Amino acid sequence: MNSFFNYFADIFSGVKSLLIGMSVTGKYFFSPGQIVTQQYPENRKTLKMYERFKGEVIMPHDANNHHRCTGCAICELNCPNGSIEIVSARIDGPDGKKVRVIDKHIYHLGMCTFCSLCVKTCPENALAFGQEFEHAVFDRSVLTKILNQPGSSIIKGTEE
Amino acid sequence: MKEVIHTPVPSVEEEEYHINMGPQHPSTHGVLRLVVSLQGEIVKNLKPHCGYIHRGMEKMCEKDTYPQIIHLTDRMDYLSAHINNHAVCLLVENALQIEVPERVKYIRTIMDELCRIQSHQLWWASFGMDLGGLTCFFYGLRDREKILDIWEETTGARFLQSYYTPGGLMWDIHPDFQKNVKAFIKYFRKKIRDYEKILSGNVIFTERSRNIGLMTKEEAISYGVTGPSGRGSGWSCDIRKHHPYALYDKVEFKEILYHEGDTLARYMVRMDEMYESMHIIEQLIDNIPEGDFSAKMKAVIKLPAGEYYQRVESARGDLGIYCISDGNKTPYRMKFRTPSFSNLSVLDHISRDLKIADLVAIGGSLDLVIPDIDR
Ligand code: SF4
Ligand code: SF4
Fold it and tell me: ipTM for the complex?
C-alpha cells in the first residue's frame, strides 16, 4: 500500500517540478520587454563599442598627417608572435646629422593576439586600439597593414 | 592433420564494439575524442585521445618573456582566463618578492570571482543542454553576457583579456566598473533562482544525475580530481582556503563540500559556489582602495635562477605552474598542471557499466575544457 502511495507521490512531485520550470519559461514568453537579443547587422549604424575595445592596433594621426612613432622598435621586440615589423630609415636631420625615422610600421592583423603589450610599452604612446571589428576578408594579405599613413611624418618635438 | 581452432563468435548482444565519441561530438564541448567500448548500451571502458588542440604552449613559453607568457595562459582554460593570468603573475611576483598594491589585490580578487561565476554560468548552460534542456543554454548565456560586458568595458576584450601583468594590471578599472558589478550582482541574485527552478529541482534532471558517476573521496584524491568535481566527493581541496593568495585570507567565504560524490553533488557544488563568489565580491566591491594599479617593475623581468611553483584555484580546480629559471628573461622550462587534464583521467573509472547517455551527464559534470587538457 505504501509503495503504491509513493508511486503516485513521485508522479505528482515530478509533474510539479516540471510545472515550476515551465512557469519560468512562460514568464519570459509573456514578457517580451526582457528580450536581450541584438539585431546585428541591422543595428550596425547605432552599434557602439566600448571605448577600450581592442579591435585592431592603429597608429593615430593628427590633422596634419603627423604621428608620434620614432621607429624605436620596442613594440616589435615586445610582440610575442612577430605581428609587428619595423622598417626604419635614416635621413638627414636639420643639423646635418643622420636621424632615424620610421619608414614602414608593418602590422599583421591576422597574427595579432591582442595582448596589448605593444600599445602598453610604446614609449611615445604612438599606438592605440581601434574599434573596427569586422575583419573578415577573402584574401589573407589584406590583413597585413602599414600603420603609418603615406606621406606622414613625426610630430615636431617628439623625434629623438 | 591440422587442428582447426574454433573461436566462439559472440552473439550481437554480447559483442563489444567501439565507437568514437568526438572529436566533433557536441557534448564534448571541443575537440576531445573518446573511444568508447560498448556492450549494447553499456559502457565497458573508454580511452580519451588528447592532442587535437595541442599548441605546444609549454615549449612556446621557453622563448617568451614573462609578460608575454600571460597571453598564452588565457588560451589554456579560456573560461578562467583571469585566473590563469593570476597564476603567472603570482609566480613572478613571489619569485621577485614584489609586493603589489592593495588596489591590485582587490581588483584581481573581484575579477577572479567574476570569472568563476561566468565559467559556472556557461557550464550550467551547456550542462543543461547536454541533458536535454535547451532553455538553460539561452538563460545561462544571457546572464554571462552581463559579465562579458563589464570586462569589455574595463579590459577591452570579452573572452581573452590578458588583463593582469606581472606586478599589477594592464589598465586601471573603468570608472563605471563598481557600479556595473553591483548592478550585476543584484540582477544575478534574482536570476539564479530561475536556474534553481528550471534545473535543480527538475525531476528529469535529478533522475538522470542522482547516483550516477559515483566517485569516492579516495578516488578523487588518487586521480587528482580537484575543484568543484573533487569537492562534490567531499575532498576539501580549495586552494583559496588552503594556500590563500590575493585577498582570500581576508574575505569570508565557505568552501562548498558535498559528500555524495555523484553527478548531482558536483552540480550542487557549482551552484553554491556561484552564491559564494557573489558573497566575496559584495565584501570587496565597495572598499577598493585608491592607489596605483601596478607596482614598479623593471622593463626586462628576469627571475633569479631556481625552481618555482605557484597554485591557484581556477574554476575547474587546482592550476599549478612549475617554472625553472636559469636567470634569463625567458624561463628554462615551464610546466602547467592543468585541472581538466587530471579530471579527465577519472572519466573512464566512474562511467564504467553505466549507459552511454550517462556518460554525457558525467562528462558534463566534470566540466572539461579541452584546450586546458591539451595546452
Ligand atoms: S610604435 Fe612606439 S614602440 Fe613601436 S616603433 Fe613606434 S615609437 Fe617605437
Ligand atoms: S597586441 Fe600583442 S600580438 Fe598584437 S601586435 Fe601588439 S604586441 Fe603583437
Answer: 0.82
Q: Residue A54 and residue B157: Cβ atoms within 8 Å?
A: yes
Fold of the CATH domain A56-154? Alpha-Beta Plaits (3.30.70)
In this complex, which of A17, A115, A121 lies closest to B162 when CB atoms are compared? A115
How many other CB atoms sit within 10 Å of the CB of residue A156?
8
A91 Cα–ligand 1 center, Å: 18
Give me the CATH number covering residue B189: 1.10.645.10
Task: Give the Cβ contact number of residue A59 at 10 Å.
Answer: 21
pLDDT in tens, A83-119: 898 888 887 777 777 777 788 889 998 889 888 889 9
Residue B44 belongs to a domain: no
Chain A residues with a Cβ under 8 Å from any Cβ in chain B:
13-15, 17-18, 20-21, 23-25, 36, 49-50, 52-54, 78, 80, 113-117, 120-121, 129
Q: What domain count does chain B have?
A: 1
| Yes or no, beta carbons of A24 and B152 under 8 Å apart | no
What residue has cell string 577572479? B112
Domain boundaries, chain A: 2-34, 56-154
3-class DSSP state for residue B207? Answer: helix
- Let me know if residue B23 belongs to a domain: no
Cβ–Cβ < 8 Å for B331, B323: yes
Cβ contact B157–A114 (<8 Å): yes
CB B310 within 8 A of CB B87: yes
Is B315 part of any domain? Answer: yes
Q: B 55-74 residues with CB below 8 A of A?
A: 64, 67-68, 70-72
* Closest alpha carbon within chain B to A80: B68
> What's the pLDDT band for A159 if we cut at 50, 70, 90?
low
Q: Cα–chain-centroid distance for residue A108?
A: 14
Q: Which of B165, B192, B146, B1 is nearest to B74 (CA)?
A: B165
Assigned C-alpha cell, B38: 560498448
- Complete DSSP assignment for B287-353: GPPPS-SB----SS--PPSEEEEEEEEETTEEEEEEEEE-SSSS-SEEEEE-HHHHHHHTHHHHHTT
Distance from CA of B202 to the nearest CA of A (A): 5
Distance CA B239, CA B311 (A): 7
**Positions of E strands within chain A:** 56-58, 66-67, 84-92, 98-108, 128-130, 144-146, 153-154
Which of A24, A25, A115 is nearest residue B71 as measured by Cβ atoms?
A115
Give the nearest partner residue to A113 out of B71, B194, B198, using CB atoms.
B71
Express each pLDDT in A40-81 by its tens digit.
888 888 888 888 888 888 888 888 888 888 888 888 888 988
The whole domain housing B179 covers 54-350
Total residues found in chain B within this entry:
375
B31 domain residue, yes or no: no
pTM metric for this prediction: 0.87
Interface membership of B35 toward A (CB under 8 Å): no
Q: How far apart are CA B278 and CA B117, in angstroms?
A: 8
